Amino acid sequence: MSKEYDVVVIGAGPAGYVAAIRAAQLGMNVVCIDKWLNLDDKPSLGGTCLNAGCIPSKALLESSELYHRANHEFATHGLKVGDVEMDIAQMQKRKAGVVKELTGGIASLFKANGVESLAGSGQVVDSGEVKYTSHDGDEQTIKTENIIIASGSIPVELDIAPFDGELIVDSWGALEFDEVPKKVGVIGAGYIGVELGSVWSRLGAEVTLLEAVEDFMPIADRDVAKEALKTFKKQGLDIQLGARVTSAKTNKKSVRVEYTQGDENKSETFDRLIVAVGRRPNTANLCAKGAQVELDDKGFVDTDDFYRTSLPGVYAVGDVVGNPMLAHKGMEEGVTVAEILAGQKPHVNYDAIPSVVYTTPELAWVGKSEAQVKAAGIDYRVGQIPFAANGRAKALGQQGGFVKMIADAQTDEILGVHMIGPYVSELVQEMVVAMEYKASSEDIARIMHGHPTLSETVHEAALAVDGRPIHFPPPRKKK
């Protein structure tokens, strides 16, 4: 390819496509190379997030939640709908439509911003040089001033439970079932596992999650995790903690899974087995032999504080540089590295990254957990208010869960906020903004919140940090 570029981006997932668009906005000549192929072998922009992760899973979560509510909750609202049936084919068709609109939207954004798009794989050869291989096998060398690696991550595959694409599947395969299995097993009870388990459980499957660690969702605050575990079990999810899978063997129609739990050897047979034990960096064939791009001991691309790799002119962002593997974190890194290339001085605040689990109820948090604050030796205060005290939550019929706010006892700066309840994926954003500006709990307590809204529970939690909630009894003072 005779044309030279200012920037070549490898990968068109959230980190890559955003980096490409922002670099183009800043006047750079950009090409983005992406090798994603959907199940129909057609290229599609957006990476795992839009094609096989964030977006399709949320579409199925919404459809399955509506089905569940129609069958179990509508009657309490006076809605008599009779027997409700789920058309799985239509549900999958709707999901595919949502995905197609959004991935097509990226193509439109590329065109509007002047970003060239190439379907195929990109390989770093050296500083300023990328080998592009089309899906047909044609190879070309692209010259460029800068390279941004945004190749993302892929599901971890277990040797004891290799994917076969039918009975044992990864998270993508779990989104493509064309019928509801009678029994579904899930290895891993992290956010991917509980979201996928929730989808098929709501639709009628008997779902068992096998989690190797003894604690449920260790990344979440313990109070939130404890409430979530209790709620999910009540919903029918069979969550087995400390369950270490030792083998998964398939026959024509089922999978027999053997695992240990404590001193016991146990086994279960499932119609489908979903492996959701995490993701690993997608670095296979990313760099040509001799290209000096160093990886860390876990296989992530090693970068400095400015996203520079060990090879001059080569940068890396998103999942491929490490945790947290979140689309929005990758997007902000993509914007940041593009602005760095333009001579600006942007910054990503890694202490204010929101995390969300899109189950019902939703889980969301930002900042440090109580355990992390305690481990850091910080003197702190906590305000925790249940949604049961919130008028809007009662009207919605979703009054389970709470908001927990943690603030520095000396400065009152908010250190972390943890939520479980209705639409907390939206409520947490207020606290992201607050923490970005280093707000105190008193700042939130003195801000007027609309009534009746779910956000009033955030307001009450801020008041509770100071022991003065209005709509919920304050904790009894110790004698």
Automatic annotation (TrEMBL):
PROSITE patterns per record: PYRIDINE_REDOX_1
Top-level division of the source organism's lineage: Bacteria
Protein family (similarity comment): Belongs to the class-I pyridine nucleotide-disulfide oxidoreductase family.
Record-annotated disulphide pairs: 49-54
Pfam family, one: Pyr_redox_dim
Binding site for NAD(+): 188-195, 211, 278
SUPFAM superfamilies (alphabetical): FAD/NAD(P)-binding domain (SSF51905), FAD/NAD-linked reductases, dimerisation (C-terminal) domain (SSF55424)
Cofactor(s) of this protein: FAD
Primary residence: cytoplasm
Miscellaneous: The active site is a redox-active disulfide bond.
Cofactor note: Binds 1 FAD per subunit.
Sequence ranges assigned to domain Pyridine nucleotide-disulphide oxidoreductase dimerisation in this UniProt record: 353-462
Gene Ontology terms: biological process: 2-oxoglutarate metabolic process
Entry protein name: Dihydrolipoyl dehydrogenase
